[in-house]
Amino acid sequence: MAMIRTARFTTDAAQAGEMLARRAELIRVVREAFPGLTEARLARLGEDSWVDIWRWESAASMQTATAGAHDLPETAAAFALTRNLTAEDAEVIDER
User: Fold this and answer.
1) Is 3-91 assigned to CATH 3.30.70.100?
2) For residue 8, how far is the Cα from the chain centroid?
3) DSSP state at residue 38
4) 1 vs 6, 30, 45, 59, 94, CA distance in Å?
5) Per residue in 55-86, pLDDT tens?
6) Banded model confidence at residue 45, pLDDT cuts 50, 70, 90
7) 21-33 pLDDT, tens per residue?
8) DSSP secondary structure code for residue 13 in this structure
9) Domain spans in the chain, listed from the N-terminal domain onward
10) How far lies 83's CA from each of 16, 27, 54, 95, in Å?
């Protein structure tokens, strides 16, 4: 069953462009290193608030990537621009 990781965070409005570039690079590297990331969506909630939703094809692929991503320098670079990070994992039950 597919899984979704939803992260909420803030970043300084002045750093939004840099955050977007680092996020794009992180997604590229994660997809190369860990198969199973099928979708990544980012939405702005306000000037400095964001919600980032990554969809994985399975719990196993998400768990493997989550464990291994800590070792990627791109992960540290992307998260260096964030504050107040929270994350939730959810199993996709119904899609229409």
Assistant:
1) yes
2) 9
3) E
4) 16, 20, 28, 7, 10
5) 999 999 999 999 999 999 999 999 999 999 99
6) very high
7) 999 999 999 999 9
8) G
9) 3-91
10) 13, 19, 18, 32
Which residue in 53, 37, 33 sits closest to 45, CA to CA? 53
Confidence of residue 17 (pLDDT cuts 50, 70, 90): very high
The answer to whether 77 and 22 are in contact (CB under 8 A) is yes
Residue 43 Cα to chain centre, angstroms: 11
How far apart, in whole angstroms, are the C-alpha atoms of residue 85 and residue 6? Answer: 10
31-40: pLDDT as tens digits: 999 999 999 9
